[in-house]
């Protein structure tokens, strides 16, 4: 079969490889080149050092890492619950899938604007809390003086917006698990938690690995939701890259920020590949 196929499989890969080279590899090389160049074109660490000395760098790094640490566990817990409900084949399964997948059709900026209308002083949240008698006066959720509340607002908005991505990956993984395994667990009297822990999660490792890598990379790049909800009240790495590129007009420091985001994404990817190996990787 291989001899009859010849070069056909490799030819089919050419468009994908060309796309990756043009739109990913080339900009990545250019960004790293800019990060290690002076404005006059000489190679140096000046732009990286300037990034590290930037007054907003530490806050941006800490806030970005905090968002990653907070958002991902919440999203995975929600996505797993949603995926299990859909996979249970209950009545109205299709309706639940459409409802859960609805945020996928909303852009990051639009999602942020939606949640701004909820968190403003005259927004839905304060109106509901006041109507229930829980608070006497509106709470200022979006204030730079309360960064923890701001981070919480961004976490909630991001969890609502992007949990569907993880849910779809997990649903695909759940539906690939042979039902005989789950039926065997029932025969041996396994509880729901035992089924999830002993059967579902081990079989879901490839899907979990992909979802974790994808969501972590996107979390490091979070930008529009933060801008919509917090404005300049929260510093994140992607926001600092944009500020240096447009407001300060220094592409070299902006490229250094972009390179840092890429490095953090690559490190997290390697960690997930090492710490969450699939069954095939275990055997290898």
Describe this structure in words.
By secondary structure, the protein is an all-alpha fold. The chain has a domain of 191 residues: MetI-like fold, CATH 1.10.3720.10. Helices cover 75% and strands 0% of the residues. It is built from 15 helices and no strands. α6 runs parallel beside α12. The longest helix is centred in the first third of the chain and has 31 residues. The relative contact order is 0.13. The model has no long low-confidence stretch (mean pLDDT 86).
Concise structural overview:
The chain has helices at 2-5, 8-35, 46-53, 57-87, 93-101, 108-119, 124-131, 147-175, 179-187, 192-203, 205-220, 224-230, 237-247, 251-275, 279-283.
Short key terms for the protein model shown above:
284 residues, mainly alpha, MetI-like fold, 75% helix
- For the record, the CATH class of the domain at 61-251 is Mainly Alpha
Oligomer: single chain
Rg, Å, rounded: 23 Å
- What structural class do helix, strand and pairing data support? mainly alpha
The SSE string, one letter per element, is HHHHHHHHHHHHHHH
Helicity, in percent?
over 70%
What general outline do the C-alpha atoms trace? flat
Which architecture of the domain at 61-251 does the CATH hierarchy give at level 2? Orthogonal Bundle
CATH fold topology of the domain at 61-251: MetI-like fold
Reported for the largest beta sheet, the result is: none
Overall pLDDT: 86
Number of DSSP helical runs = 15
Beta-strand percent range:
under 5%
Distance between the termini: 26 Å
CATH superfamily membership of the domain at 61-251, which one? Answer: MetI-like
């Amino acid at each position: 079969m291989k001899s009859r196929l010849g070069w056909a499989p490799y030819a089919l890969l050419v468009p994908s490889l060309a796309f990756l080279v043009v739109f990913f590899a080339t900009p990545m090389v250019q960004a790293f080149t800019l990060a290690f160049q002076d404005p006059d074109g000489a190679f140096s660490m000046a732009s990286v050092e300037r990034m590290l000395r930037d007054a907003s760098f530490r806050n941006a790094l800490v806030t970005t890492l905090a968002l990653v640490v907070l958002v991902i566990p919440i999203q995975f817990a929600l996505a797993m619950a949603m995926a299990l409900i859909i996979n249970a084949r209950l009545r109205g399964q299709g309706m639940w899938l459409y409802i859960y997948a609805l945020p996928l059709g909303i852009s990051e900026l639009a999602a942020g604007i939606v949640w701004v209308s909820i968190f403003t002083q005259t927004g839905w949240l304060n109106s509901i809390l006041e109507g229930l008698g829980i608070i006497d006066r509106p709470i200022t959720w979006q204030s730079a003086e309360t960064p923890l509340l701001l981070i919480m607002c961004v976490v909630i908005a991001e969890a609502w917006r992007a949990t569907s991505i993880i849910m779809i990956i997990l649903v695909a993984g759940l539906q690939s698990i042979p039902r005989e395994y789950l039926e065997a667990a029932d025969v041996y009297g396994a509880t729901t938690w035992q089924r999830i822990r002993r059967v579902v999660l081990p079989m879901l490792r490839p899907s979990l690995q992909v979802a974790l890598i994808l969501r972590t990379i996107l979390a490091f790049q979070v930008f529009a939701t933060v801008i919509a909800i917090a404005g300049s009240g929260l510093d994140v790495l992607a926001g600092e890259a944009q500020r240096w590129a447009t407001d300060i007009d220094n592409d070299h420091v902006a490229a250094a920020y972009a390179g840092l985001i890429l490095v953090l994404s690559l490190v997290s990817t390697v960690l997930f590949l090492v710490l969450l190996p699939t069954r095939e990787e275990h055997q290898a």
